[in-house]
Every structure is written in C-alpha cells, then in structure tokens.
C-alpha cells in the first residue's frame, strides 16, 4: 500500500508512520510543523520508503502533492487540536479542521485515492450524553468549535463518498497518550503531568479531580487506523478508547507513582468547554475491525514516563 499521512510529524501521526513502515508500506508524510516536531520523524531520514513533504492542508498545493504521489489511502491526522484555541478563535479552527478537510477530500478524489481514514474526536463530539460508555449511534452534541469541526469533517467526507465514491472511515479516539505527546500543549495531560513531575514542578488539576476521561495508548490508536484502511467500515465512525473511566485524580496518582514523585496536585477552576465525563463504547470497532485495546493504563503510563525520562523536550 502507498499511504499519505497528514500531520506526519505529530504525536499520533509519527507513530502511525512508524507502524506503516514496519508493515512494509510506502509512506508520504505531510506536515507544516505548526505543532508537529521534526524530531519525531528525523529517524526516518534516509529511509527510501518514506518521503516527507512540508506543506499545509489548507494550501492550494495539496492537489498537486496528491497528484504527484498517488496514494491509495490517506490518513488524515493534521488538525488544530486545542479546544481552548477553538473557543477563542473558531474561524481559524474551522479554516483548518473543516476547510482543510474539504480541500484534502477534493484533492484525494481528483488523485484517485481509494480511502481517507479521518481523525474525529470521541472525547469531545458527544458532549454530555445520557449514557456511558457512549456508542457511535448517540447523536453528536458538540460543546466546542473544535468538536463541531470534527463532526463537520465527518459529514463532508461522507458527502464526498456519496458524490464520488471516495471511501472514508472516521476514527474517534478518546484521550490518547503515550511517547512523543507534547508536554507543553493543552490536551496531553499524561505528558503534562509526567514532564512536570519529573522536573519537580507543580501540577494542575482543573476542578475537584472527579472529572473522568477514557485514556487510550497511542499504539492502540494507530492499530485502529491501520485496520480501518481496508474495505470494511466505509462511512462509519469507530470509537477508539478502552471503555474505562479514569478520574483526573486517579490519573495523577498513576503518573506520580510511575515517576516516584509526591501525589500532590494543585486544584484550579474548571475551564470553559471542559466536559465532566467522557467514556466510549468500543464494541463497533471490535465487531467490524477486529480491534481491541491491548495496553492497560498502568503499563501505558509507565512507558510514557520512561520516554520522558530519556528524551529532552523543547
């Protein structure tokens, strides 16, 4: 398979590139380094099976790039991922997450791409549902422009499928964590806790610590992307999580234990747009893709902490 990965220098994107190369696929990686980091793909320099293109998904150059490289499958991970920023500047958020996705879909159908595997957001698009774990059939109820843009991306890609026969599947991850996650970003709480505790800095929990999330290890998420690249699951969304709720307080305790640091976070007021709970029903992915998470939280947190012990981040 010849694949193109947008957001290839990002946390999840670079891990996906590594998996695709390990599986023997030819990969074209695309990133504008807005949030992606060159260090995440520098080990691929000299790899004849990997080609990197520095470009933006909102650029008019996208059509020429896909026409040149002729991928069979496009894994679309490039995005504006900061929920707070989406609230502050919803127009910019939509310009990347909605317009960028439309540009990619249009370029893909003109280049003869078979399928786009799109990144949605299981951790945000359902808002505050009546039941947990939350399944894909629950209507989307976005509580932020970021979440709304992810839903819009799904709708546009499915529309391109109806119009042009372009296949698509939507991977809706819960809260992803693991090596290469940005410890200075807004969303990567495991990385943020790990880096701060390793450096002896204070950690912040927003709210009273009872808010819950469904934490899924990056390798498990990448496996779902790869499984969704086949013929199955066309037009469907797949929740990718664990089906287990972990509170912010429990997570801090787990990271502190892995670091060997005091479990003593500072508590701050909740932020605008924060959800009280999030937990995903992952049975559709198991039934259709044969996908199930393999990495337990304690193991994944330990592996993430060990990564940050060894790697200096900037």
Key attributes of the depicted protein:
13 strands; single chain; 314 residues; NAD(P)-bd_dom_sf; globular; Rossmann fold; seven-stranded parallel beta sheet; 11 helices; alpha/beta; Epimerase_deHydtase; two-stranded parallel sheet
List the uncertain runs. Answer: none
Distance between the termini: 34 Å
| Quaternary structure classification | single chain
Q: Shape, please? A: globular
* Percent of sequence in beta strands: 15-25%
**Which class best fits the helix and strand makeup?**
alpha/beta
CATH topology: Rossmann fold
| Strand arrangement, major sheet | 3-2-1-4-5-6-11
Q: Quickly give the CATH architecture.
A: 3-Layer(aba) Sandwich
How would you spell out the order of helices and strands?
Answer: EHEEHEHHHEHEEHEEEHEEHEHH
Report the radius of gyration as a whole number of Å: 19 Å
Helix content: 25-40%
Kindly report the name of the CATH homologous superfamily.
NAD(P)-binding Rossmann-like Domain
CATH class membership: Alpha Beta
Pfam families: Epimerase
Family: Belongs to the NAD(P)-dependent epimerase/dehydratase family.
Domain NAD-dependent epimerase/dehydratase: 3-241
Organism: Mycolicibacter heraklionensis
């Amino acid at each position: 398979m010849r694949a193109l990965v947008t957001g290839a220098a990002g946390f999840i994107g670079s891990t996906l590139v590594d998996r695709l190369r390990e599986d023997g696929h030819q990969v074209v990686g695309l990133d504008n380094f807005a949030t992606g980091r060159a260090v995440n793909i520098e080990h691929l320099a000299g790899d004849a099976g990997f080609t990197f293109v520095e470009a933006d998904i909102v650029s008019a150059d996208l059509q020429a790039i896909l026409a040149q490289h002729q991928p069979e499958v496009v894994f679309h991970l490039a995005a504006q991922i900061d929920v707070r920023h989406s609230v502050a500047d919803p127009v910019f958020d939509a310009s990347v997450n909605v317009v960028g996705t439309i540009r990619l879909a249009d370029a893909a159908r003109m280049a003869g791409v078979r399928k786009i595997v799109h990144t949605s957001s299981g951790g945000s698009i359902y808002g505050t549902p009546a039941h947990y774990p939350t399944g894909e059939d629950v209507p989307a109820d976005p509580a932020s422009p970021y979440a709304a843009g992810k839903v819009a991306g799904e709708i546009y890609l499915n529309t391109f499928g109806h119009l042009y026969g372009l296949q698509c599947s939507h991977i809706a991850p819960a809260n992803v964590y693991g090596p290469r996650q940005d410890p200075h970003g807004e969303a990567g709480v495991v990385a943020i806790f790990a880096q701060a505790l390793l450096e002896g800095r204070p950690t912040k929990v927003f709210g009273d610590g009872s808010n819950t999330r469904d934490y899924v290890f990056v390798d498990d998420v990448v496996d779902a992307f790869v499984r969704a690249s086949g013929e199955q699951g066309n037009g469907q969304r797949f929740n990718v999580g664990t089906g287990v709720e972990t509170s912010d307080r429990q997570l801090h305790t787990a990271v502190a234990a892995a670091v060997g640091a005091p479990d003593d976070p500072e508590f701050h007021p909740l932020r605008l747009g924060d959800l009280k709970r999030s937990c995903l029903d992952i049975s559709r992915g198991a039934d259709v893709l044969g996908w199930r998470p393999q990495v337990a939280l304690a193991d994944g947190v330990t592996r993430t902490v060990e990564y940050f012990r060894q790697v200096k981040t900037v």
